[in-house]
## 1
Amino acid sequence: MQGWKVLLVDDEEDFASTLAERLRIRGMEARMAANGEEALRLISDDLPQIVILDVMMPGMSGLEVLKRIKVDHPHLPVILLTGIGTTKEGVEGMRLGAYDYLMKPLQIEGLIEKIGAALQSTEGEPK
Amino acid sequence: MTREPKTEAQFMGRITASVAHEMRNVLAIIKESAGLIQDLLEISTDTSPKTKEKFGRTLSKVQQQVERGVHLATRLNQFAHSSDEPVTGVDLNDTADQVAFLAQRLAKLKGISLLAVPAEQPVIITSDPLKIQMLLYLCIASLLEVVGPGLTIGIGPRTAGDSRVAIGFHLTGIDETTKAECSGPDGAENWAALKEFAAGLGAELEVKALPALFEVVFASGSRHG
């Protein structure tokens, strides 16, 4: 997991910054975006290896962000974060090309395992 | 597109579901923060093993309470969504499980445990999910009046044949002494009101011999499928 480039997209800044710090402790390069527009800008500036994307955000929804990511970067893996009322969006997101979805609160080990599997599955694919 | 709530129950459900969702976000932040402290402690070189151990124990309690809070918020959210549709397919296995959880605290205050005993197959009726939960809750409340402490009330749905389904309430852990101390469920103060409420949902209450207590039977021709 050393050096994995992860982009966390979540409007809950305290959640995203804490999770980013935990991923950095484990050797990853974690960046954050607080909304869809910022996420798309960061992806275009410096392509991450994976995006962790909250489905429920003000403004552009997570699913809308996912659709836009998949237009320019069809092989960039995206893991969605859902809540209890948004598992439907998680399933819909997988139909739209998300690698998988996880429910908040997360188990860090589960997230890391999922990131590893996603990166392995897209190894060699153009992003 | 989310539909606007049409009734007070739907409005209350909508708000409750939204707050429960936010509660999970709060718990997610607490969980990650506790996790980060744990991570920092593990890599810290200037903290004594004893202090690390104390922190670790306290953080583990925080994590456990977060899990408990998540479970409560999830149940609350599920309950809130039960007012989404006035009439829909209801699996009584899920409803029994949900109501046993929701009434747990009420039962605990009387020293009684509740246990959902699901059927092997789904037991589906078409009805108002909120009212079905209210009926089961009222059944439990009336039983708590007549059942002594230390016992467990099992709540088990079953298919009763002739397109009827039933939810049975029975006691476990009962011996001859406690059996003598239990009055019949029809001795509860609200029994008549409960029967009337059940009738409104096309159901009848059938009193059984102990250790079974009674069954709520959804009769043929009522709003169940």
## 2
Amino acid sequence: MFTQTISLFRYLMLGILSRRLLVLVLVLAALTMLVGSFFNELAIINGKAIVVALVADFLRYSLGIFALLLITTSVAEDYEFKQFERLLTMPLSRWQYIAAQVLVIASLCLLLVLPVLLVISLYSDWQVGLYWASALWLEIFLLGLLGLLAILSLEKIPLAVCFSLAVYLLAKLSGLIAQMLAESVRLSDGSLTSRFVDFIFGAILYLVPGLETFAENDVFFGNVNLIEAISVQFSSTAIYALFLIAVCLVDFYRKEFNL
Amino acid sequence: MRRAERPLLQLPVPLICGFLLVLSSQLLFHHYSPLLREFRYQPLSSPLQASTYRGVAMGSEKLMGYLLALRLQLHDSQAGRYFSYNRIDYAVLVDWLEQITRVNLTSEYPMLLASRVYSQTRDKSRLQLMLGFIERNFDHAPQLHWRRLAEASVIAKHQLGDLELALRMAQKLELQPASIEMPHWARDIRFLLLAELNEFESAIAIIEALLQSNAVTDPDEKRFLKDKLSKFQQELSESRQSIKN
């Protein structure tokens, strides 16, 4: 059973890997270094810290979107080429497909963060580089799982990418939205509509990851306990990842395929 | 397989004419629009609340604070031209500096911009606004901002000509508890202010004290101060030369 899952993982992974992937990641890293050197010229003080923080955030968002596109495209091709129907005629369970996809996402994220480790260690020290690479791995892994859930449910790449990005941005901007809603409640003298919307948003927040689930950019400006930061992020990501995998399984087992 | 294409000349004449018209208007617009904008100064817009910037930062508040400070620093450079600080509305500028300080409370950048960049104006009312900002923010984080207040006291004496304000700032530094770590010269800056030194001599004394006391650790700031030191030394020697002649 385990061998079958690994074989499926290898098959899926080979579908994603290509020379273009490596070239694109290297181009991204080179581009960030160029942008970084421009900002280094502008800053009067703390130029190095500003540059490394900027490069780190640039890599975070570009690699996140890149991973999301790769994962959704890979699963969408399985739909398009009737791969699921073919796989289900083999002695394979549906959970094995999900397990193989989770392994693919984990490995892809690992491949993507290795250049990040090098770039950040080059600009900053290796401990910060190691923290950022690990934290970024957790963040992109979570985004990849979200993409997997979206593409399994929605079956179309644009819909899946938009949904995943919407949830990701909702989680990241939850502080701002909560602040706006609280202000709206205050300005409307606590009207029922405003309070209802505020309540609904509060309920939605229970289903999206909190800000502690994401890599902490403030580490580049010092005074952050790296071990503590990564531990909090790891536990938060582990719980949310398990939740997403469970939803993927429920959704995938519910699907009917015409065998 | 590449799809076959019809030659351009076989396309409908109104379509080709329309295309050429649109292309030429695009080229003309692109050619003239920079000329129209070139000499028009874009005033500084009011900032949003710090809490909004913190929300938009998506967890990177400190980076956001620095980026906003850099954006403000570049405001005087528009369309490849540098505008005088006198064109900037200093009330709005101070508002920007206040909001940026609130976005990243651990950053020295807004105070640095106030003491070393925007204090280079000869307009006394503007200078007062800037020194007021420095004095207010020093009270919130004396350990972080004692150097800016020391610089501000020298600016108050020489640029603003307000010895009373300068001495008040010096007294603030002097009265800081021992838990605030700063070199002795900073606590005793009152004596420097009362000494018969001109603007350049005072600035040179402060920069030399900063560099010798190892109060500056950032390499970018050290380079900035060394550049300023050689500039002030040159200006001092030129002013002495002109007095002799």
